């Protein structure tokens, strides 16, 4: 990634951390010392236990569950971003579909990988006009505009207007819409396509119907990656 792109991503990750901590602190009814102790416990837990831990203390954010708007950037972590970039570099997809782009952090990782490969497009989707404006600016600052096709508007309407096949799909929208949205994009997938779905642990209840559908369908091979917020890694078999 270019030096300016790296600096930008570092700033966006720092901003997301501040937002996340601030949101959790506002929900926690206790002292700063108790909150610090809780944060330390959280980071020591295995990822698959973190969602239940948050819910136990009333810190689960509805941002991951329901289709209401939020000002939060809800960005992927740096570790997740590097994973996405490396996966693109190894799989070499011609077309990537990103469902829920927010301010473009994951978009930048996708676009940077495509830039290194010298080809490909990531179709980014986002409803919030303010976030779309920030995404466009971030893409411009990183110098990867030619690899990003931003579709602003309702994601279901956007998907309905798409055609052709996608080799890679990243789902990071509202957890209660995963199954409905996946059923709509199935026609855009082909054998060998990869689908990643975030928030399998942090929104475990809301994504249950999606996970059941994937696991019971012989046309897919899927496993949950035990890191970050839980990532369902699905390969289209037939």
Automatic annotation (TrEMBL):
The keyword S-adenosyl-L-methionine applies. InterPro entries: SAM-dependent_MTases_sf, SAM_O-MeTrfase. Its EC number is 2.1.1.-. Gene3D superfamilies: Vaccinia Virus protein VP39. Keywords: Methyltransferase, S-adenosyl-L-methionine, Transferase. It comes from the Bacteria. GO terms for molecular function: methyltransferase activity. Pfam families: Methyltransf_24 (PF13578). GO terms for biological process: methylation. PANTHER family: PUTATIVE (AFU_ORTHOLOGUE AFUA_6G01830)-RELATED (PTHR43167:SF1). This is Class I SAM-dependent methyltransferase.
């Amino acid at each position: 990634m270019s030096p300016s792109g790296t600096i930008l991503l570092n700033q966006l990750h720092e901003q997301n951390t501040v937002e996340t901590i601030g949101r959790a602190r506002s929900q926690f009814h206790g002292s700063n010392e108790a909150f610090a102790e809780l944060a330390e416990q959280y980071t020591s837990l295995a990822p698959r236990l973190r969602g239940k831990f948050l819910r136990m203390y009333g810190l689960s954010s509805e941002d991951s569950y329901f289709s209401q708007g939020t000002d939060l950037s809800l960005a992927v972590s740096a570790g997740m971003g590097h994973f996405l970039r490396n996966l693109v570099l190894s799989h070499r997809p011609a077309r990537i579909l990103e469902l829920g782009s927010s301010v473009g952090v994951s978009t930048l990782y996708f676009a940077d990988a495509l830039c290194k490969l010298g080809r490909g497009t990531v179709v980014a989707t986002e409803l919030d006009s303010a976030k779309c404006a920030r995404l466009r600016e971030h893409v411009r600052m990183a110098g990867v505009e030619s690899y990003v096709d931003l579709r602003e508007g309702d994601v279901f309407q956007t998907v309905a207007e798409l055609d052709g096949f996608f080799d890679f799909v990243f789902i990071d929208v509202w957890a209660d819409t995963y199954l409905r949205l996946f059923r709509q994009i199935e026609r855009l997938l082909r054998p060998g396509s990869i689908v990643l779905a975030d928030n399998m642990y942090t929104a475990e209840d809301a994504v249950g119907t999606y996970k059941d559908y994937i696991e019971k369908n012989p046309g897919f091979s899927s496993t949950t990656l035990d890191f970050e917020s839980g990532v369902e890694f699905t390969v289209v078999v037939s």
